[in-house]
Amino acid sequence: MSTEPLGWPAVAGARARLAPRPAAPAPGLLPEDDFRRAVQMLPLVSIDLLLRDPEGRYLTGLRCNPPAQGAWFVPGGRVRKDETLAQALRRLAREELGLTLPPQAWRPRGVYEHFYGTNFAGENGRSTHYIVLAYEAQLALDTASLPLGQHRRYRWQPPAAIAADPGAHPYTQAYFKESAP
Q1: CA–CA separation, 58 vs 143, rounded Å?
Q2: Domains of the chain, first to last
Q3: Rounded to two decimals, what is the model's pTM?
Q4: 40 half-sphere exposure, CB direction, 13 A CA radius
Q5: Coil, helix or strand for 25?
Q6: pLDDT for 108-153, tens place per residue?
């Protein structure tokens, strides 16, 4: 068992000098190695965005990145340190959907847990645990206008189709199975 405080550099002797740290990442973000260690040790808080069009279909995107890479998943992302839920909703709507939506446009859908056997780097055996706050909003938009950073493609589908789609991630399917008749 290590007695070294988490995140503190090891100091060899009283006169040892600390190596300069790389440039600080954006506010609320950790350097990759620190983030990897945090993911190993802590649950992450994230928001899933369940966007419904006027026809009652929901938006899913084909994920580019681990841990849900290659599956159809609802847009969303992590809440950052010192970011309020309202700020996170605003940021995620902008980054994931290219939208400027006020937080009031989203209604809470529920709290969920997601467990993955891999992490953000796709490293097997390095699990990820999310506490997920799901929010829902209604809005029509053209999938051709959506950002392609986290998802390769997007599609609108009725809840029953998502719940039955073997290409949809089980965590995304669960949102629509729980509300099925």
Answers
A1: 12
A2: 32-177 (3.90.79.10)
A3: 0.80
A4: 12
A5: coil
A6: 999 999 999 888 888 888 899 999 999 999 998 899 989 988 899 9
